[in-house]
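Kindly review both lines to help learners:
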Amino acid sequence: MVDLQGQYRDIQTEVNERFTSVLESAAFINGPEVQEFQKALEAYLGVKHVIPCANGTDALQIAMMGLGLQPGDEVITADFTFAATVEVIALLGLTPVLVDVLPDTFMIDPASVARAITPKTKAIVPVHLFGQTAPMDDIMEIATKYNLKVIEDNAQAIGATFTSVNGTKKMAGTIGHVGATSFFPSKNLGCYGDGGALFTNDDALAHTLRGIVNHGMYERYHHDVVGVNSRLDALQAAVLNAKLPRLDSYNAKRRAAAKAYNAAFKGHPDIELPKTVNGCEGICDSCDCHVFHQYTLKITHGKRDALVAHLASEAIPCGVYYPIPLHKQKAYTNDSYKETDFTVTNTLSEQVISLPMHTELDAAQISHITKTILNFLNS
């Protein structure tokens, strides 16, 4: 699904030089590489504050802690996403409220969000899934109307943009009150271990977040807020410093691969191509609304599982994200949920399939993958 070794060969010299510099300096925690990355990412995103941390799950938890959410507060998020999004809500004693998603883009459904709001609702966590943003105009309008906080889960869409109805363009993760991302190795911007970051334009919130990630300290041994130990280490920052200037190029390569996939599959009766919130295919030369962390199709007419088995037999990797909706997971079941509230998510779990998507994909690989799929579906 990813080719990290191929990507490493392209940046090997710079990464190794940066690793050597860190090892010789022994500045492993909050050293120069971390500071360099923080400033570079702030400039790239056009955001006032980036707060590096240890991983993307921590980033979500720290965001909720920084916003002062309290046990019993309800937090609305999408049913169709990875468990980390809802995991941290439960860990903090908050109440996760899962809602359905849109059938074409797989993003959180604003109408379902609006219906789920109660007097206990304090925040919304829209997930920027598979490489593009949720419908943030609608989400922010709802949040403003009900005085709710918005935490963007941007683990899969760094580098993507969202263009508002008023023409304003912003980077994913910088639209709500705070954004959280992951630098897990397979991400579009990934390190060689775990890493994460938070983004915000709120000075006071940024100050709080910086204390939380470092045991609640702003001055050594002075603990002003309840914190955690969640710091991006310098070796991971070194990798990210090598990759960040290449991120737009990486994302362009992903869009090119998506364009080739789309061209091969277009019009097939058993395949529904990816759609974007902006209404385009996300693959034109001037478009950066989708960065294709995953290239995810819908395989209809009950053929998905057989296709997955066939690809496995042909040694072609694929993924099903996500085979079991969160509302059906043992850890997050809730007697108040009704299956009729999750008709889209339930259908997606039976239809979606993600194909190999990374910066090293070449035309021959894409041709082999697409021909194998089409031959199977047409047989």
Summary: The CA atoms of residues 265 and 271 lie 7 Å apart. The chain has a mean pLDDT of 96.
